[in-house]
Design goal:
single chain, 135 residues, alpha/beta, four-stranded mixed sheet, 30% helix
Length: 135
């Protein structure tokens, strides 16, 4: 996913991430920079059977983690990867101003399915998670 949190994560892992784009990473290296939805879907088709995860961070203060600021991660992409393979990352500081997570993919059925979970586990540090309400 895009954003400062994800960019910092890239730096910590030893690569330069596109700040506002979605990059594909495999084993610590960039596979493709600034991907479109079609790039991601093509990768998923060619690499069927590989375990893929989506890593995103909520927009600070607003809480949107899918659908705003990362439209490349479309409902089609989410359905192919699976809701259980979405990793939401945040700094503890960002979560202080982001009390609720929100989703707005444009696919009401998918959004409802994600919201029905009630809470999402957000990675905030090494083996540290917070449960955050989703609406």
């Amino acid at each position: 996913g895009p954003g400062g949190t994800m960019s910092t994560l890239g730096e910590l892992l030893g690569f330069e991430k596109t700040l506002l784009g979605v990059d594909m990473v495999q084993k610590g290296g960039i596979v493709l920079r600034d991907c479109s939805e079609q790039d991601i879907l093509k990768y998923l088709e060619v690499n069927q059977g590989k375990h893929v995860k989506i890593a995103v961070s909520p927009i600070g203060g607003q809480g949107f983690f899918l659908g705003r600021g990362n439209l490349q991660i479309s409902p089609r992409v989410v359905r192919k990867v699976g809701i259980d393979d979405i990793i939401v990352l945040s700094t503890p500081h960002k979560l202080e101003s982001t009390k609720i997570l929100r989703v707005d993919t444009g696919d009401h059925a998918l959004d409802s399915e994600i919201r029905s979970r009630g809470v999402l586990k957000v990675l905030v540090g090494y083996r540290s998670y917070r449960l955050v309400k989703i609406e």
